């Protein structure tokens, strides 16, 4: 479970996140929505211990990130497609992560098969397409078999088959009882699979509701989203 309470992050004297509170329960697939520059990536990085919070609290399975005995086995993260060294093979990258995280190296073959990269596991990352790098990042997030997963725009670069594969994977992971927080601009995918949506606007939570409640009387999810972020954009807010 992921519990965020009153989280604020300041950069250069400016509030990037301002009093963000939300919770992702076990078994929930929650999508994080918002325009570019509204703090989505900052929120995910802060959850994953990459950026410091100015104030507030983040608990992962009841513990703060520094208190986790083995973080990769508690929270799986995929925050971009440039995490792997371009000269490494997919297998070498995942093997290095496994050893660093105290995860059995035998798990590498399992996640390679899960993301359909077994046949290219010995190819260098520099030769991978964007969609293949997305799959590698998802494999890394799944490596520790964590109960909480945080993914930033995992659909980008996937072809139609890949999008359908990811849709099924995310839903199945949530149905297993995992907590998933996914940042995305792909509202079609959100409408298909999400349990809840959290909308950020200018670093604050503009909406946090089940999808049906969020859409409400609006024509569809897109109209509901545009209504939630209709306020003027604040200039200069990092993402």
UniProtKB/TrEMBL annotation:
Designated name of the protein: Spermidine/putrescine import ATP-binding protein PotA
Enzyme class: hydrolase
PROSITE patterns noted in UniProt: ABC_TRANSPORTER_1 (PS00211), ABC_TRANSPORTER_2 (PS50893)
Family annotation (SMART domains): AAA
Organism: Gordonia paraffinivorans
Keyword Ligase: no
Regions that span the bilayer: none
Encoding gene, per UniProt annotation: potA_4
Gene3D superfamilies membership: P-loop containing nucleotide triphosphate hydrolases
Family classification: Belongs to the ABC transporter superfamily.
A molecular-function term among this protein's GO annotations: hydrolase activity
Record keyword ATP-binding present: yes
EC number: 3.6.3.31
Domain ABC transporter: 2-227
Pfam families per record: ABC_tran
Keyword annotations from UniProtKB, A to Z: ATP-binding, Hydrolase, Nucleotide-binding, Transport
């Amino acid at each position: 479970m992921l519990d965020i309470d009153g989280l604020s992050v300041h950069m250069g004297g400016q509030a990037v996140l301002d009093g963000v509170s939300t919770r992702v329960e076990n078994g929930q697939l929650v999508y994080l929505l918002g325009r570019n520059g509204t703090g989505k990536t900052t929120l995910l990085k802060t959850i994953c211990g990459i950026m410091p919070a100015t104030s507030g609290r983040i608990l992962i399975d009841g513990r703060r990130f520094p208190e986790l005995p083995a973080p990769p086995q508690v929270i799986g993260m995929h925050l971009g497609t440039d995490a792997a060294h371009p000269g490494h093979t997919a297998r070498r990258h995942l093997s290095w992560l496994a050893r660093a995280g105290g995860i059995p190296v035998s798990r590498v073959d399992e996640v390679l098969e899960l993301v359909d990269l077994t046949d290219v596991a010995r190819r260098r990352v520099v030769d991978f397409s964007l969609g293949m790098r997305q799959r590698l990042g998802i494999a890394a997030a799944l490596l520790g078999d964590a109960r909480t997963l945080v993914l930033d725009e995992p659909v980008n670069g996937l072809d139609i088959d890949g999008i359908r594969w990811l849709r099924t994977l995310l839903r199945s992971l949530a149905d297993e009882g995992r907590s998933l927080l996914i940042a995305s601009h792909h509202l079609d995918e959100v409408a298909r699979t999400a349990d809840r949506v959290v909308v950020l606007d200018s670093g604050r939570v503009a909406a946090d509701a089940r999808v049906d409640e969020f859409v409400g009387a609006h024509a569809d999810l897109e109209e509901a989203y545009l209504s939630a972020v209709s306020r003027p954009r604040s200039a200069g807010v990092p993402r």
